UniProtKB/TrEMBL annotation, chains A, B, C, D:
Its EC number is 2.5.1.54. This is 3-deoxy-7-phosphoheptulonate synthase. The keyword Transferase applies. It is an enzyme of class 2 (transferase). One of its GO terms (biological process) is aromatic amino acid family biosynthetic process. Keywords: Transferase. The keyword Transferase applies. One of its GO terms (molecular function) is 3-deoxy-7-phosphoheptulonate synthase activity. Residues 27-266 form the DAHP synthetase I/KDSA domain. InterPro entries: Aldolase_TIM, Class-I_DAHP_synthase, DAHP1/KDSA, DAHP_syn_2.
Amino acid sequence: MPGFKLVGREARQKGTVVKVGNTEFGSNKVAIIAGPCAIESEEQLLETALAVKEAGAAVLRGSAYKPRSSPYSFQGLEEEGLKIMAKVKKKTGLLVETEVIDARDVALVSKYVDALRIGARNMQNFSLLREVGKSQKPVILKNGISSTLDEFLCSAEYILAGGNKNVILCNRGIRTTEPELRFPVLSGSTALLKQKTHLPVIVDPSHSTGNSSLIVAASRAAIAEGADGLIIEVHPSPEKALSDKRQQLTPGQFKSLMPELERVAKAVGRGL
Amino acid sequence: MPGFKLVGREARQKGTVVKVGNTEFGSNKVAIIAGPCAIESEEQLLETALAVKEAGAAVLRGSAYKPRSSPYSFQGLEEEGLKIMAKVKKKTGLLVETEVIDARDVALVSKYVDALRIGARNMQNFSLLREVGKSQKPVILKNGISSTLDEFLCSAEYILAGGNKNVILCNRGIRTTEPELRFPVLSGSTALLKQKTHLPVIVDPSHSTGNSSLIVAASRAAIAEGADGLIIEVHPSPEKALSDKRQQLTPGQFKSLMPELERVAKAVGRGL
Amino acid sequence: MPGFKLVGREARQKGTVVKVGNTEFGSNKVAIIAGPCAIESEEQLLETALAVKEAGAAVLRGSAYKPRSSPYSFQGLEEEGLKIMAKVKKKTGLLVETEVIDARDVALVSKYVDALRIGARNMQNFSLLREVGKSQKPVILKNGISSTLDEFLCSAEYILAGGNKNVILCNRGIRTTEPELRFPVLSGSTALLKQKTHLPVIVDPSHSTGNSSLIVAASRAAIAEGADGLIIEVHPSPEKALSDKRQQLTPGQFKSLMPELERVAKAVGRGL
Amino acid sequence: MPGFKLVGREARQKGTVVKVGNTEFGSNKVAIIAGPCAIESEEQLLETALAVKEAGAAVLRGSAYKPRSSPYSFQGLEEEGLKIMAKVKKKTGLLVETEVIDARDVALVSKYVDALRIGARNMQNFSLLREVGKSQKPVILKNGISSTLDEFLCSAEYILAGGNKNVILCNRGIRTTEPELRFPVLSGSTALLKQKTHLPVIVDPSHSTGNSSLIVAASRAAIAEGADGLIIEVHPSPEKALSDKRQQLTPGQFKSLMPELERVAKAVGRGL
């Protein structure tokens, strides 16, 4: 009685490939999403976009709506941010994704981006899950910070049950008792998710480690374990970022990371 | 830099008393909320209401909207449930509270009840927090299942910053590594919350223990530690409940619990 | 298949009363153990002993062997500490207990004290458990900082299976994801232990909260929940203590705590 | 003030290479330890040894002393097991390691094996740490199941401070709130350990996942992240094993794992 049906491997032995534009998640190629935590300005986003495109990223990330624990933290540029993202998409030809945090915003946000992201805090915001379930827009669903794998899959089930089969699971780790890692991904959890579900599974090394010096290692590990993609934070000047300063790579760091990831992908029989 | 201002003790040394109807939360009297997990029918709710009223409860609980991990679990009677609650309120004279799970429902739900409840899964549903912040209806805010105390207070801050000062914090425990307790309340956490904030703090022994045989002990402990109230699940036939079978008390068990709680309340200088 | 037999309620419906000298653990009276974290000098221990005796404590605590995470932290006075404890026992007439951390020391330590304590780090030091199992000296067994209740009971089973039935369980809490409480006791865990085992269960509010300002609240809660005793750290000058500065009460604080505990004990039908 | 000095990177920038016989831990080659959970018979150990040797393992593991949560579980063959290990070492030429669980056994166990292992339950058995600190025998130190990285390093410090510099850290994961993984390794923790200490770090994919179907993935991830070695459980007939049935590989599975590991090792610039 795990509480899910459509997302289980029993329902579909073959892995599902979810397409964001022409980029496949769940195929033999490992897909890389990269970009800043938050959209801060057109200059910031464009500079990042050009850099991650050149390094080989397939999709640009960037949040216009920032759910923040404190009401006094930077909350994102909202629709202005979406407009910036649309401009940068046009200028660079990159696919783009962004977070949606309110069921009332799904239609609006969908106009601007190629994929919707649902963050950890909203994994069990069932109104939001139902709303994106009515759409056909690809959804990147992150697990909650202390959800079990089965609870995570149940949340994906809400979206599939609503009619949207284009769900990409994002393993972003959970809160543990180790104080020096933010919300670490559990080794084995990506592989176990892939056993339990046919949906593609990507990993977020940035939010899970919370430490830019660990992102190379965590990214290599994720691909070695079988992740179908990564979502990595990159910012032109991480130390000046309005959020997540400690965990964003510079464009230069990202550029040198990519060939490392390609070597590991090849070692496990995949490409980048 | 804890991320909150209005809810801190620094902002207000004196404890805030939040009134739900004529019942005070945060005064010298410990307030008891009781009722079923979910509203299942008028008969079920009325029978429970009469029983908990006679035993001394001040407020009737009952959910019309049930956020459930699985889309295939019972989701509540929705507006029909609210109408049942309104009828039972009229027949019994009890104050009533219910959960609101969607920012779009706040106005509707507010018409039927004396207090709104925000559940653990929505502690960081900031759209919902902002919406109830615009209201003056008392809000019972539960902590998320792995939130820290500071994150909990930050979420309350969203409501106060929005203009609604009538917030009652509900300590419902967190997920731990102990498999035999559901989401246990941490001993000391209620007392520490009371040091950090001026808002009233109640405890939920039902959802935290997940075990009806532990509710007497956990309720006594909560009052002894300094809780300003309790919210306890009571169902006419727990074994037939559509949700939370294992943790609901029978009316008879609730009736015998109340004098026990009164003795502990008096031992710590309070009343019931 | 819980892995234990002798300690289960199935093996013995009636609660076991363990006697330390003439003090009963598990009877209708709640027994209080108090004293410093570590034995630092005869003056320090004697001053504390006289104060806790006057306030009504039954047993004096104090560690001569200190298991410390770092090899560079104060490790205790070792046998010199035991000799100090013996002197203070003679001068005050108090019963005394201390920690034993090595199977090779059991015989030596037993000569000096009325009860042996096994700390959290040694809950699964099976050589040590077997050694105290061969003795008839009462053993206060603390749970490991992330043990489950069943693992805790299995460790007690080692001692009973060895032939020593005089085991007092000490619920000292576990490591959780809440950063502001040290190793909090889970509300409901003491009551659940009492359902599962016939052995007496005491609570350690000092090591669990790690915060002297929470000890009154946590102690009241423990008794209200059904604890058979408490073990509380008291130091003449907590700020000068060689270990656990933040969590030791002053003699004055302990003195004012005791009548509070007595009121709660009476409210739940017990005495102090 | 992390509580350690000798084990920190500050004390020694260059990574330490610990030699077990002629096998290096911490050099450019990833070292593989493999063998059964427990030594059950000469036939069982020899069969396993021949298989893992042929597949390329450098060191044979096998426990003669089994610390078990329950006193009624199989406790190991003790000295008889050590003698079996010595015979198998002679017949196969493999290096061998085994667990030591009691300070009084260090000298005896050291006569039979090339490296001592200290298990998770004994990470803070300081008597045992001090005893192996007096030896020059290599020590494989596992972290406790809810230790922090700093507490782990402090325990290693006890051994180095005692005079034994031959310490290999074994990252075996911690207890988390995910019920489907036993004690998972946190992604990023191996890389972070390597930043903090100069000691070699190996990973235990068997005890961390607790699931033989996840060992390939977890092993690949560990090497990709930067582990200096792995310790993997292999048993001729896992379903008949006297302990850890679910997490031991068959010799055939181990044989097919090794080339996979070699590919990942090469992808990160190392060999096997």
